[in-house]
Structure formats: structure tokens, C-alpha cells
Amino acid sequence: MALVPGVFELYKTQVAPMMAELGLSNKLSVPKLKKVVVSMGLGACLGDRKKIDEAVTQLSRIVGQKAVVTRARRSVSGFRLREGSDVGCCVTLRKERMYSFLTRLFFLVLPRVRDFRGLRTTAFDGRGNYSFGIAEQSVFPEIDPETVTFSQGMNVTVVTSAGDDASGRALMVGIGLPFARVD
Predict the structure, then answer these.
(1) What pTM does this model have?
(2) Which end of the chain has less Cβ packing within 10 Å, N or C?
(3) Local structure of 156: helix, strand or coil
(4) Where do the domains of the chain lie, and which CATH numbers do they carry?
(5) Pseudo-torsion of CA 29, 30, 36, 37, nearest 10°?
(6) Residue 27: what pLDDT?
(7) How far apart, in whole angstroms, are the C-alpha atoms of residue 11 and residue 32?
(8) Phi and psi at residue 9, in whole multiples of 5°?
């Protein structure tokens, strides 16, 4: 599977040469993308096996890899949740699939979102990782809006090797993450 030009090319041309800007002495210490985790919380679909299967199928189609169903670790009576119940699905992407997904997400999907003005710059976790949400799955070209029976959002977490938010932000800007303009 060949790498899709886009995010990987931007990393090689813009992020890798920024050693001096980040104050790094070794080129191997430049921040890198480790993995991307895409997940759907399906709490509203508790007990509805058809909706859970549909969400797993749609997430698998979107990312190009089989999604795994996540289960509740413990029972919570206030949420009518039992231990072992299906509560979501997730996929971890690495290497070629990660770069391919990020390229499609940054340059094809996010511009299609209605009233999209960019992602928040404050969603870093303190270690250089970035998380954001997408309101519904129908903005992806792999999903036929005619076949969607319920709207479901998803969370995307980009895990990096950056140790702090400043390095993580520089990496995200370098690979083309569409941040909102701060005036």
C-alpha cells in the first residue's frame, strides 16, 4: 500500500527540517505522529444491536480498518449500564493508514463540514496530543447519506511523540491541521 501524498509529504518537507526552530540538537527528537485513535460512543444505542452493528460498519468503512466494539468495564445503575455491555467502537490507525486517513480528513472532510471555521488550538492534553470531535459521520464520502438511519458523532485523537503542547502544536501546524484563526 503506497503512502498517499499529503500529510506524510508535509511532514517530510515542513516538520522534519524544523529542528532549529524547536531548539532540538538531534534530528531523531523531532516530534512524530505515533497513532490516530478514532472512536464512537454509543451510549444512546444501549441494547440496540442493529445500531451498534451499523456504527461499527460505518466506522470501519470510514477508516479502512475493522473497528472493535468497546465494552463497559463496570456497572453504573444511574446510566442503566451493566458490566460487559457494548458502549462504543474504536479503531487505532498507524503508519500508512494513519497518514491516508489524516490526509482525507484535513483536506477533504473537514472543509465539507457546514460552518467550519477551523479546529480549536486549546484541545491539547499537555503532552502534545490533540483531540477533537466530528458531529456526524455523514460528512465522510465513504458514507452514503441515504443509508444512514441515525446520526452519530466521533472522536479523533492524534497521538504524537512531542513532550509538550508547543512541540505538538508546531507538528500539527506543519502537517496541515486546519486551526481556527485567533485574532
Answers:
(1) 0.81
(2) C
(3) strand
(4) 7-22+32-42+91-174 (3.30.1440.10)
(5) 50
(6) 72
(7) 8
(8) -65, -40
pLDDT at 124: 86
pLDDT of residue 69: 81
**Selection from 139, 148, 172, 145 nearest residue 33 by Cα:** 172
State the alpha helices, DSSP H only, in the chain: 7-10, 19-22, 49-63, 95-104, 165-174
Question: In the 3-class helix/strand/coil scheme, how is 44-92 assigned residue by residue?
Answer: HHCCCHHHHHHHHHHHHHHHCCCCEEEECCCCEHHHCECCCCEEEEEEE
Question: Alpha-carbon distance 60 to 14, whole Å?
Answer: 31
Give the cell for residue 61: 468503512
- Name residue, grid cell 480498518: 65
Q: Taking the chain (183 residues) in consecutive chunks of 10 residues, what is each chunk's mean pLDDT?
A: 64 72 73 89 70 82 84 66 73 89 84 80 85 81 74 86 84 81 59
